[in-house]
User: Which sequence fits this backbone?
């Protein structure tokens, strides 16, 4: 089992474990309880991958997630785990520049996603190669729009509004987006006018 430092900015806040499980690596992150929504990122020599959103448990913020060794090989040797506020636009390097308003047509072909998003208004979509991204308006006082995809959402500011951004492949399977340090950029200029 490999031990990795957990950093929040420059401050060391805990220790993570990376345990080999045949074709997989189990990542466990445990830090003192933090107020707000925080995400953990596995940082390697060539990039990073989002582990997921930390959850409160027994006075700590924790997450345990399994990755294929192949998916982690893209980021190189693991160096550390970073803990960041979810609002930092994580995954920004993978989001294309131009977005379109979704309109009245269903956002999804998949029945379960269509049911969960039927009351959503002001959604944006974007297709880039074999990836389709859907941005749903963030409502701090309302329920999360697609609960089963909670850990795969990125938080982004597009124009003047906050969104949850989800990525899907051609078969409409949710995709965990990775961000390479050299690709990370801001979402703020993607839309010139606020969506009404």
Assistant:
């Amino acid at each position: 089992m490999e031990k990795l430092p957990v950093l929040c900015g420059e401050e060391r806040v805990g220790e993570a474990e990376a345990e080999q499980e045949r074709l997989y690596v189990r990542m466990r992150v445990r830090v003192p309880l933090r107020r707000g929504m925080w995400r953990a990122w596995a940082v390697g020599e060539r990039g990073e991958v989002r582990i997921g959103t930390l959850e409160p448990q027994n006075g700590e913020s924790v997450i345990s997630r399994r990755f294929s060794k192949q998916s982690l090989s893209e980021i190189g040797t693991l160096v550390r785990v970073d803990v960041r506020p979810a609002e930092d636009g994580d995954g920004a390097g993978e989001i294309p520049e131009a977005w379109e308003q979704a309109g009245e047509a269903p956002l999804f072909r998949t029945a379960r996603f269509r049911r969960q998003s039927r009351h959503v208004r002001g959604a944006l979509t974007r297709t880039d190669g074999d990836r389709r991204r859907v941005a749903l308006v963030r409502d701090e006082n309302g329920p999360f729009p697609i609960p089963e995809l909670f850990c795969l959402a990125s938080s982004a500011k597009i124009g003047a509004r906050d969104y949850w951004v989800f990525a899907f492949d051609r078969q409409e399977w949710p995709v965990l987006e990775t961000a390479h340090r050299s690709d990370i950029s801001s979402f703020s200029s993607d839309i010139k006018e606020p969506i009404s």
Notes: The helical segments are 69-73, 111-116. The chain has two domains: 2-88, 92-183. The two ends are 51 Å apart (CA to CA).
